[in-house]
Amino acid sequence: MKDVPEAERPTRARISVRNGEGLQAGLFIGGTARLLPPPQAAWPGGYDFARDAYFKGIGAVGSFSGPVRRLDPPMPPGWSLRLAAQVDEARNSLTQRIALSIGGAAGGVGAALVTGKRGLIGETTNDILRGAGIYHIVSISGLHMVLAAGTFFWLVRAVLALAPGLALLWPVKKIAAIAAMIGATVYCVFSGSDVATERSLIMTLVMFGAVLADRPALSMRNLSIAAIIVLAREPEALLGPSFQMSFGAVAAMMALVPLMHRRSTEALPATLFERGIRWVGQAMLGIVTTTLVASIATAPFSAYHFQSLNPYGLIGNALALPLVSLVVMPSAVIGVLAYPFGLDRPIWQIMGAAVSQVLEVSAWVGGFSGSTLVVPALSAGALVLLSLALLVLTIPASTLRWIALLPGAAGLAFAAAPDRYDIYIDREGAGAAIRSIKGQLTLVGKPSEFVAEQWLRADGDGRSAKDAGLRQDALCDAAGCVVAAAGQRWIAFVQHVSAFDEDCRRAAVIITRLKAPPTCQTGFLLDSAALSARGATTIRFMPEAVEVRSVRKGSERLPWLNAGVPRAEEMPARERPRQARPIPEQDFPEEEISTGEPD
Asked: Is residue 594 predicted with pLDDT exceeding 50?
């Protein structure tokens, strides 16, 4: 950094530290860190960390390579920094108290539901929640905001209604709405004010603002106002999964759930028991219908951004959400109110018992065969058509909404026949995934596990990046690897300059992080210079041409790749690659390449 002019240095850097003992929010620290530019997408159309970092003002990522020193600040911190540090320390303290009060995996989940800090949740627990389709409960967003604000609203209104004078002379409902708005705002700040939480807060404030204005709280107009406010503050949110899934789910539920509930003309049951049974039945029906509608509405966005679907999410949500709604979140609100007085531990234990039941239900549902389906990445065209179908289905109030079947059917047709890429190439040339003649991706080189997982999920391949079978179809030696790809083309991954002479004569595509010699003439060459200009690249073989897409260069078709390249069956036997025992690559530095990818 000392050689970088002050004006060109990043405003913010995201730096990891291996040992954070003794560190706390608000400290002024120093140390030596290894910094890299925020990494771009692992493949064209994949998650772009660099774009998100840009809008967050983050210009570098990395990790400390030595001890972290505590320094005296050059000037007193501003009030905003002091406030943020105090809030974060309070969150850390409450997180530890909740986790210790409950204990085990339920403690980490319970703490995350209140403070938004998910660091105490183990990866096994995350997988259990994902498999049951209820991982959304640990990401503080619309569900938590509605339940928290609803609890504040109900408590204040119920307490005020106990006094006949207040109930008759004061606008109790509006007072409760104001209390709910204040409580929701405090909850948003205390839970970390993540982007999804802020969007949920805006939607909640608009809904309770409608109560103050004597307007219907749930209407498409209010949802539109919330969307306008969110996009005015964060236009980039339109491209993110959180905005698309949250607003899509709410719009679909507003439009379709009332149509699924038939109004009964029967008289109310006479006995209290019968009324209770009817209320429970209606509540369960509401959970099932809302979960079904929300799952269908968010499925295209889930397939596009995460390449996964949870077909048993309806069962998981139907069994878990009653516990979350009736026990977990009310306990969270009451526990936070009791925390300053030291009376919160029994409440956390009650909440922990409910969270434990949620985890048991999740483990049971996640144990079903096919609980998590990895699907090929949805194309942008399919996503646009399905999004258009959702808009047409939810915005009109007449039968015109059924026109949505046309773009919906077209979108499903595109989704059913995905265009898979045949080669995925790392942005730095550290590795690649190549579709072999067997039809599955084969890994070569040393791509990071995160990048390899992104490639596999984009292809609809559920294998882990650690699966040894991913390298079986690659023929490797110390100089590099070759793979017989679709159309019997040889794809070469060069790791040593000695391999250029042979591979430049026989390969249709050469991938290397080295600088290729000028004499290397092949169908398509991606060496260090080309990768620097293109970034992560994908290749798809088509009958008439070969499509090449890059993160930095866009898309192009190269028809000459199909001409003049010897195929495997046409190659003389002496020039065909001999099968060699795969050995560890020798030409890469031993130090770990930092990707800067989010957890």
From this structure: no
